[in-house]
Amino acid sequence: MPLRCIAVQTKPFEGQKPGTSGLRKPVTVFKQPQYTENFVQATLSAMDGEQEGATLIVGGDGRFLMKDVSLKIVQMAAANKVQKVIIGQNGLLSTPAVSCIIRKYQAAGGIIMTASHNPGGPSGDFGIKFNTSNGGPAPESITNKIFQLTTKIAEYYTCPDLKPDLKTVGVQEFDVDNRNFTVQVVDSVEDYLQMVNEIFDFGSIRQLLSDGLKIVINAMHGVMGPYAKRIFCEELGAPEDSCINCEPKEDFGGHHPDPNLTYASDLVDLMKQGIHGFGAAFDGDGDRNMILGKNGFFVTPSDSVAVIGANAKCIPYFQKTGVKGLARSMPTAGALDRVANIEGFELFEVPTGWKFFGNLMDADRLSLCGEESFGTGSDHIREKDGLWAVLAWLSILAARKQSVKEILNDFWTKYGRNFFTRYDYENVEAEPANQMMSNLRQMVADSGYIGKEYSHGDKTYKVAKADDFCYTDPIDSSVSQKQGVRIIFEDGSRVIFRLSGTGSVGATVRMYIDSFESDTAKLQLDAQVVLKPLVETALQLSQLRELTGRQEPTVIT
Ligand code: G16
Description:
By secondary structure, this protein is an alpha/beta fold. A 7-stranded mixed sheet has the order 2-6-5-3-4-9-8, sandwiched between helices. The protein has a 7-stranded antiparallel sheet with strand order 20-21-24-25-26-19-27. The relative contact order is 0.11. The protein binds 1,6-di-O-phosphono-alpha-D-glucopyranose.
């Protein structure tokens, strides 16, 4: 008996506009009847028929609500004439693994159930994002189309009696309205493991660990637990206690699965004991990473990508492909620019959001890129990739036979050091945050602003350039405006302001501070001390404290 598909009447919900990376809202919002179905239908409709007869990849980070939504997506995919769904066991797939699997099986796209580093559980966040056939997050042209469709949706299509077993690896065939429909449940780790095994030399990393480097990997109860255990312990021979918080939990154990100095402070404390030579943490869906050296030595994400760029020859993948070009998001500190300059690589500066790297990679102009928001990756897939970054670092440690700190010291000595910090003010009221941004926009639009001076301590900063960052994609010429207010001073120091596009309530103000130092006597100084006058300048010119009422940031990175 064929399973029947039905059309269900519905009405639009307000605000189903994807942000920096998909639609992220509180679970309570997603739980409203038909809310999830509307967004999934708009996503499938935005594929404009390309889903018909095609393969769709489905996976997520294991957060609360994902089980229900996995089934809904499979039922709706069947009714929207998708021929085959490949889904992770129990729905679990990291974001990089989804990108890998889309590319490997030439799927029409993928739907990822994640709110990334946002907290989970019944009072946390849920999220859905769409990746296109290149494996990368949908570009703005598609997310805008999805949003438009959500504003006028009248019905969605589903196959309510389709009930595949998503717990068991294997292939299940169904007859849906006299069409063949396949659900393939895959081991969450296998395809990803095969890919990284080809990119890196596992033998040399295994040797590094057996020679005595003690590592600790914190999966923060996100999706990366099974990946970490399989790859670091089973494949690379690290002892079992090297991987911590590796049980995926629907609420991430009640924590923010966000790998930074605040939310992964337990890892920082552990590293400070001096037992481990290398530590790393991942976010909920495994695309972000934080790298630490012995005694909690922190590698900023901006330095991390630059160090990988400078040592690309330690990685077999880059030995084969060469380095075609480098890229960073605009607020990311300029360490990568110095590598590009000295090593002769093309460098791109794109807006915040991994989706902006995809076109450059598809056009073979970009091999390695990173963002200050703990994202690092290469053109092996079209997402940032936390575990890839860790393997890249271990490859460098294996080749250079130095500690993390020694590698950074060598790097700063050769290229100079970009001191960087980011202040996050979370859950600020939207109105004053918007007011601050609009004041800043007005300020930088005034040509008389160039040349204005600010003094703090023994430092004086003179404005050399100021704008609201606007990006024209070099490949398809699409234009993205209002991507962050940046003020660049005559000594090259930069302060940048933007509102987060991944929060789900109120506004999160991000203030980025970047300053270059080439004086070797100053390279070892503490970033917060060095940057204090620039931080004060940024707070003064933005009137952030006065407008938002916040005296201190929620997170300092
Ligand atoms: C997402 C994007 C990243 C981007 C980050 C910025 O990260 O994938 O490319 O840098 O958002 O976040 P915000 O807009 O809050 O500053 P993720 O890990 O949340 O998917």
